[in-house]
Amino acid sequence: MTRQDYLALVDELTEHDRRYYVEADPTISDGEYDKLNKQLLEIEKHHPDWIVEWSPTQRIGHAPVSEFAKVTRPVAMLSLDNTYNEDDLRAFYDRVVKGLDGDVPVFSVEPKIDGFGIELTYKKGQLTLGATRGDGRIGEDVTANVKSVKGVALKLREPIDLVVRGEIYMTKAEFDAINAERAKHGEELFKNPRNTAAGSIKQQDPREVAKRPMRTILYEVVDGERYASGHFASLALLKQLGIPTSAHNSRAQSWEELIAQVHSWADRRDSLPYEVDGLVVKVDDFAMRTALGTTSKFPKWAIAYKFPARQVTTILREIEINIGRTGAVTPVAILDPVDVSGTTVARASLHNWDQVARLGLRIGDRVTIQKAGEIIPEILNVTVSAEGELIVPPTVCPFCKSELEREEGRVVLLCPNRIGCPAQRLGAIEFFAGRGQMNIDGLGEKLVEQLVEAGLISDIGDLFTLTVNKLLGLDRFGKLSAENLIKAIAKAKSAATFSKLLGSLGITNVGSTLAQVIANKYRKLSTLRAAAADKSSEALIAELNDIDKVGNTIATHVDKFLRDPHVAKVLDKLAAHGLDPEEPITVVTEGPLTGKLLVVTGTLTQPRADVQKRIEAAGGKVAGSVTKKTTYLVAGADTGKTKLEAAEKNGVKVITEEELEALFQS
Ligand code: IVH
């Protein structure tokens, strides 16, 4: 075995890839291919210094990146103008013909693949860059991920320089298979092939990307006139070079031919293995394209003709109740699976309970559903009504049995039992640990999920049972990160005040200000809980209601929260771990801000609750909206226009966070 033999084997496998992905006409069986591939791996294991970048084995295995590098491209990646009906398509045709002084060009009519736009750069025939569209001019370097997509040629059959654009997509069958697998494991389903492909390409770990079966089709050569006189010829060149192109592009040389092609797609559209959301009509001749030119956004020589949304009917079998991170309880329709434009639909979004009422849904109804491109299907109407009762919203949470609440004037139904509700577990823990609440450094969404999945925690009370040793058992968790997390939890615990703790529990509508006034009265969580235990709901609500700023709604939320048995269990755990901090007495003294009324807004460098506390400690008062009485508006980054306008109208001085610091010192 010589290096020459090795290179020949690389070329042989590359050629088989081309036969398979470009020609769709393989000359060897899968088994024979696998054998060659194994042989290649074996050689590379013994001669790692021989490995070339274009070896088919180099598609996967790159290390994850934390951020994609930005790439600025000389030729902006434009998007296409859309039309939705034949009249508009005719208008495009007329504009083109007029722009060419009456010449009727050859058009290419091609399927508009519903995937993720990509640009590939080849230098001397070797793939050097794969970039996303981004804002058109600046995209992201996703080369490592793109390489893992089967069909992306790593090395062309000729050593030429070339930039091509195309689409990365997932076939409908592969999408359905992934979702079926996810359903089996109780994982959240992907919405559609397009989002899945896009999400996969933007994954930061190429090894994960390699697990998502994706394909590619390239449809435009950048600066095509350098290689050919027209589009069809340039695509033929791509194919020759080993780049996959669409086998479904056709020529039209008159309006009649063009519209006949468009009509022919009404039936063909579903027969393609990938989703097609319309057609792209392009002028073939490159000189004509140049003559027609572009607007700032679109080429004038091409247009997208979008297919109308697909509607089918099916039977409504069940209403599944979902609960979001904020406690919103929403209905999802479970349907008899039907095929809509080639993907299987078994669920439809119902948005909220008002929509269920508006549609007048009953179990067993035959309903019309619509799927428009990237949107999750929705129920349009009831086609044949079933007998039986109308579906009504639940009154108790199906997960924790808490009584549901509907806020006045809002359509959402809420489960108020945030920390006690198993369905809200992740959101509640994440909120508790977040900035402005307990501030547990480094404990974000991903880590919370990992801890819950590993069975280490199931609520906020369990956070305080974690140890370095327990964390070391986790995937990708080193000693240092384990120690840091334990330290962060201990730090949060020792820094906690009762008001901080209370505000971190996620009681509906109880943020830092209300937590503060309640904490001022009860001083400790145990005292507040004892008050709830000793008194009737009525008496406790009345007592809370007496506190300045606490109204009946808030008092009721707090009462309900404390009486929920699931919440009680979690709060017992906190107590067992000694988390019952006392609220420090804030003596209102004369300070630099005595008599001043401040409004704090925008993003600050420290949690807003802390800033408010310091203002109060300095003798000032904090309000939520700007009025004539306001002394200063403290404006952080991205302060809203409304607040600034109100300040101007009322003659209120606007100051920065640094200026506020100066006031504290004065
Ligand atoms: S040509 C300047 N051809 O549709 C012309 N685009 O809405 C560039 N697309 O960004 C695009 N199939 O991601 C072209 N056969 C096709 C296409 C296609 C899908 C996508 C592409 C583009 C978007 C425009």
Task: Walk me through the structure.
- The protein has 666 residues and is α+β, with helices and mostly antiparallel strands.
- It folds into six domains: 3-52, Helix Hairpins (Orthogonal Bundle); 82-304, 2-Layer Sandwich (D-amino Acid Aminotransferase, Chain A, domain 1); 311-406, OB fold (Dihydrolipoamide Acetyltransferase, E2P) (Beta Barrel), CATH 2.40.50.140; 422-495, Orthogonal Bundle (DNA polymerase, domain 1); 498-576, DNA polymerase, domain 1 (Orthogonal Bundle), CATH 1.10.150.20; 597-665, Rossmann fold.
- Helix content is 37%, strand content 19%.
- It contains 24 helices and 22 strands.
- β21, α23 and β22 form a beta-alpha-beta unit.
- The chain is globular.
- The mean pLDDT is 90.
- Bound molecules: 2-(butylsulfanyl)adenosine.
- Residues 78-80, 110, 112-113, 117, 167, 219-220, 280, 299, 302, 304 line the site of 2-(butylsulfanyl)adenosine.
Gist of the model:
With 666 residues, the protein is α+β, with helices and mostly antiparallel strands.
DSSP strand content = 15-25%
Bound molecules: 2-(butylsulfanyl)adenosine
What's the CATH first level of the largest domain?
Alpha Beta
Largest sheet: 7 strands, antiparallel
Q: What's the end-to-end separation, in Å?
A: 81 Å
- What's the architecture of the largest domain in CATH terms? 2-Layer Sandwich
Q: How many discrete domains?
A: 6
Helix content: 25-40%
Give me the CATH superfamily of the largest domain: DNA ligase/mRNA capping enzyme
The coarse silhouette is globular
Q: Any low-confidence stretches, pLDDT <50, length ≥5?
A: none
In DSSP terms, counting alpha (H) and pi (I) runs of 4 or more, how many helices? 24
Compute the number of strand runs. 22
